[in-house]
Amino acid sequence: MDKIIVTVLLIISGVVGATLLMNSVLPAINQSSSAMSGMTDRLNQRVETLITIVHATGELDKDGLWQDTNGDGDFDVFAWVKNVGVARIIALGESDVFFGTEGDFSRIPYVDYAGGVKPYWEYELKNGSEWVRTVTMEIEISFPSTLASDIYQIKVLTPDGVSDERYFSM
User: Fold this and answer.
1) Could you tell me the fold of the domain covering 50-169?
2) Which residues pair with 19 in a beta bridge?
């Protein structure tokens, strides 16, 4: 009889222990699986998003003189950025544009957030109405005065963290 009681108590203890283990491990596994799934979705979106700065230039001619090529009276720097990924990029004004000479560049605010103070940037999609694959976005950075001839860097960062940068001289 003693052996039966001990056996029953051991079986009950084993079942209770297994239940406690499953109740603590299973939620952690589910939470980890959910986190991995979310991370995979974000990584997949990032992989599908890809941009390339095709060309960048300023309104200086070969002699370093200002040429107001678009007739707006401001000194402008232009960059053409192509969406070469498969994802549509939205909220273009939420992108970050960094510009300046090597080692001395800063974030340029989008025109809607600049409060009318230059420099600021704005954009125009050149061959489409949405920034989807193969569509090029022209970025225009407007400055209150002419920039000096030098080597400049422009970096464009999309809202989901994909970026490209280019060095150019003017």
Assistant:
1) Immunoglobulin-like (2.60.40)
2) none
Residues 6+ apart with CB under 8 A from 140: 70, 76, 77, 78, 121, 122, 123, 124
Residue 93 has which token pair? Answer: 């004004």
Cβ contact 110:78 at 8 Å: no
Rounded to an integer, the average pLDDT of 123-146 is: 94
- Bigger pLDDT: 80 or 3? 80
pLDDT of residue 136: 96
Report the distance separating Cα 37 and Cα 100, nearest Å. Answer: 39
Q: Which residue has the tokens 């980890």?
A: 32
CA–CA gap between residue 88 and residue 40 (Å, rounded): 18
**DSSP states of 9-69:** HHHHHHHHHHHHHHHHHHHHHHHHHHHHHHHHHHHHHHHH--EEEEEEEESB-TTS-B--T
In the chain, the amino acid numbered 5 is I
Tens digits of residue pLDDT in 62-106 = 787 888 888 888 999 999 999 998 889 999 999 999 999 988 889
- Sorted by where each begins, the domain ranges of the chain are 1-48, 50-169
